Amino acid sequence: MRYQCGEVNILPVNPPVDDYPTYIEAAIRAVLSEGIASGAAALEPIAYPPQIISRRPGVPLATAARVFKRDHFSCRYCARKTIPTPIMALLGRLYPLSFPYHPNWKGGVTHPAVITRSPVVDHMNPGAWGGDWNADENLVTACWPCNASKADLSLEQLGWPPPLSIPDTDWDGLTGLYRQLWDAAGGPAGGAHLRWLGAFGV
Question: pTM score > 0.85 for this model?
């Protein structure tokens, strides 16, 4: 299945194991036909007791830049090419009517490419489940849709395969053009662009 959004093809990310509807339906039918206790038994195979999940620490900008560069700005879950959000923000500054950008990604005023192609650093095994928040081997580049789908769950919990290998490509997320684009956009003030430019070494 492929969804069309403007000129951007949105490929569905790897879905979770689709046993949930089966177990949920069985639980509801058990409640209705045999009572509350039977419904609890039917839910047992997918039981997820409430728990306190530790707040994830922020990923330092230098770490994010290093991981993105290592992975050639490609999502390790679906292979989409990604483009750092600040680069797309500059494009939005230049072309607000054809490539709108909102800093909070507000619907209607944010180009779909921003949502589908912005990279984030994902923790393959979240710290909430014992993963190391800071180990490079636990960090991968993910496009925003894959990262949002994965949330704070492990690949095993989702039934997802291991991450894809680092692609053999020279794709640089357009970072090689970043400084020139920043200049063309008037070198907008604010430390964020300067920090990203420095982190990418451009």
Answer: no
